[in-house]
Design a protein that fits this description.
Elements lengths: L3 H45 L8 H7 L4 H22 L6 H11 L4 H12 L7 H17 L4 H14 L7 H20 L6 H11 L3 H14 L3 H13 L3 H18 L5 H7 L23 H8 L1
Helix pairs in contact: 2-4, 3-4, 4-5, 5-6, 5-7, 6-7, 7-8, 8-9, 9-10, 10-11, 10-12, 12-14
Amino acid sequence: MTSAKPSASRAHRVGRWVLAAALALACAGGVGVVQPSLATSVHKVQQRDDVFLLPPPDQLRAMTLGYRAGAADLLWTKLILEYGIHWQEKRAFPEVTRYVDGILAVEPDFKTVYEFVDTLLLFAPGGATPERAREARAYLERGTRERPYDATVWLHYGQFIAFLAPSFLKDKAEIERWRIDGAAALTRAVELGADAQRSLAASTILSKAGERKASVEHLQRAYAMTDDPDTREQILLKLRMLEATAEAADATSVVDREWHGRFDFVSRSAALLIGPARSPAKCAGPASYDTPGCSRDWAGVIAERR
């Protein structure tokens, strides 16, 4: 009688383990049967409707708790990941502007956004529209405001609206306006230190648009501020075609007088990098920006002293 009780207890435990194993196998089998169809349904839903989890830009800025640079990097990484997934699945990415707005709310001068926002907006599955091109231009214009002395941002903006964006537009008058604005942006980029070769493309656009005066003024500033002999020769040839070589010589003499008068102990390139001299007393504060003699760059000095 005493040996029968342990045997019954062991049998009971074994029965429970068998029942648990059977239940586990049944559950695993059920998951195996149901999961593929559920995954297919979820994938179809994700392809049709993206779930955007970021809060509005103003709230997002507050939620960073001051760690704005890190938050901007994290959001940029998420944006690029989503962009790649949408490309792989060949579906539109309408939420791209919401990600960009979130990044710029956290860090308005985030340079990487301004370098690639046109690509993110225009080169995506589904094709581009004129509205997307205008959105890209608006973001790039903001970049020139947030980074007003960044030659790279100005150059990218100018190249986009002068050469790339017109292919997405339909109105000829709008295309012409954009090309002229792009040429003006390219001239600003050169004045801020971009390759002076860009001056030739900008002057060609301005000349074709009948903007001879603007073309000449830009070329003479570029001629005065570059030291590369080949580039100066090409610019001078262009000026001769516009019958403006004397103006170029005047612009060069303005820079050279400033160089020899104040910075004769450094090379001409270094003097161009240092910039024009400004009186600390006369040119103090933002109110002096438009005061004669307080130009912040060589283009302003050339315009004042010609």
